[in-house]
Amino acid sequence: MDSRSLSRIYLYLFVVICMGASLASCGQPSLPPMQVQRDPLQSWIEQHAIPFKTTDAQAPLDDLASLQGIAGQASIVGLGEATHGSHEFFTMKQRVLEFLVEKMGFTMFAMEASWSAGEQINHYVLTGRGDARKLLQQFHEWVWSTQEVLNLIQWMRAYDADPRHIQKVRFAGFDCQDIETITFDNVERYVQSVAPQQAAQVAALYTGIRPDPTQNWDSYMHAYNSAPPAIRQQYVDRAENVYALLNAHQAQYEKASSPQAFALALQEAHIIVEYTQFMVLLNDPKAQSRAIQQRDIFMADNIAWLHEHSDGGEKIALWAHDGHIGVWTYEGGYTIMGKFLRQRYHKQYLAIGTSFYQGMFNAYGKKLGDPVARLQAFTMPPPSKDSYNYILGHAGIPLYILDLRRPPPGAVSRWLKGPFEFRLAGIGFNDADESQFYDTIGLGAYFDVLIHIQQVTASHLIDY
Fold first, then answer.
1. pTM for the whole thing?
2. Residue 417 near residue 437, CB atoms below 8 Å
3. 198-252 pLDDT, tens per residue?
4. Cα–Cα dist 267/165, whole Å
5. Same domain, yes or no, for 322 and 433?
6. pLDDT digits (tens, 9 = 90+) for 70-87
């Protein structure tokens, strides 16, 4: 596994603990025997669940026809995953993306991944230039270095290469983490083109912040995280100075280029500001909860920019963890990304979550008896009887879509309001205490729509 700096690992583990977790095994075998009394909840699920045939990304899309009515007029559709390492969540999201593109005119796919990596992958998707497998390394996260994500990117390239498809599909990352040289280069090249006399100033301000392309990424991150707090704060100040410089010369720069070119350069400079601010919070033990909150705010802002400014951003499909896609504020005030999107776009944002009953997933952590944490596949047994997953898993349907909006009054409404436990597994896991990987939520307030997959298997990691 790629080594990560300790501070980043601690953040990921903290996210997992704060948000909950989940996982599971494979195929769609026979369902567990009914262990709960027949009641209005299961009757409602059986009557309203829309079964689909498969999670296979190569299969026809006919069984997803109901999504047309479910998505309606939404222009931003969030696709969640209950674990960051399950094959079926990834392949099913590809199927949904294909449906949104081919049947509903969606023109952008954006991931919970580095903005910089997104720029490079978008170039590949549109032109075919580059090696898709190597480009996955630019994410600097094992989560996305999988055969499933590679297959999705290659599908996007094949779609765009087809001359029958006049409207191309674009790729983007919306995360403020792992910002690479390309984003700094874009800002510097823009300033060089519109105000050459200020280019040296911008380059000087970015010195120390920008990664050295000849340096190993982990070495760069170690050096950044090891810098004294005062130096990291200087990085914030200098990144903000570049952003302020562009803002102060908007009219001049737009005249020398175009409003669209200026807007993109300003956003790139803003991404760098986000990155430096996030890293200051991340490296302060007293501020890591603020770092988690600020990241969701930044990601929502970046999605809004893509939706409102980017070519192809009129209709976007998002890929992220359930714990970002949902529209929820936790007790204590932590508000996740989807809630900010709901507040901004109202019904134009649709939150589709995923759930599972049991199975396997990849995560970074320890199994019982392991001397150290490592990246490996974990197995999660059937869920707690007090959980949403338990009820969802006893519907007698191995694969289904369930619209959670407009439930009937009475027992179903009370159940969806909750709160009850719901399985969520992030980038880290601890096999010693599976019970901690549940969130206590109101399912009907967290998601608009749920895709339930009875049994999941681990994603297929790419070994570099």
1. 0.91
2. no
3. 999 999 999 999 998 888 899 999 999 999 999 999 999 999 999 999 999 999 9
4. 29
5. yes
6. 999 999 999 999 999 999
The two tokens of residue 189 are 């090249």
At 160-194, the pLDDT tens digits run 999 999 999 999 999 999 999 999 999 999 999 99
Dmax (CA) of the chain? 76
Count of residues in the chain: 464
Residues 319, 404, single domain; the answer is yes
Task: Provide the CA 89 distance to its chain's centre, in angstroms.
Answer: 12
The answer to the question of residue 376 being in a domain is yes
For residues 113 and 46, give the distance between their C-alpha atoms in angstroms, rounded to a whole number: 36
Task: Give 391-411 pLDDT, tens digit per residue.
Answer: 999 999 999 999 999 999 999
The total number of structural domains that make up the chain: 2
Q: Which residue, chain included where needed, has tokens 């009875």? A: 454
**CA neighbor of 51 nearest in space, from 35, 38, 62, 40:** 62
The 3-state DSSP class for residue 397 equals coil
User: b/e for 188-213, b at 16 or more Cβ within 10 A?
Assistant: bebbeebbeebbeebbebbeebbbee
Domain co-membership, 332 together with 417: yes
Q: Does residue 148 belong to any structural domain of this protein? A: no
Task: Show Cβ contacts of residue 195 under 8 Å, excluding neighbours closer than 6 positions.
Answer: 249, 252, 253, 256
Domain housing 81 = 6-106+315-456
**For 415-450, what is each residue's pLDDT tens digit?**
999 999 999 999 999 887 877 899 999 999 999 999
Contact status, residue 300 vs residue 337, Cβ threshold 8 Å:
yes
Residues 6+ apart with CB under 8 A from 156: 109, 125, 169, 171
Distance of CA 108 to the CA centre of its chain: 14
Q: For residues 138-161, give the mean pLDDT.
A: 96
Average pLDDT of the segment spanning 25-36: 42
Q: What distance in Å separates the CA atoms of residue 384 and residue 244, rounded to the nearest whole number?
A: 52
The CATH number that applies at residue 327 is 3.40.1660.10
Please say whether the beta carbons of 150 and 133 come within 8 A.
yes
Place of tokens 């599976």: 434
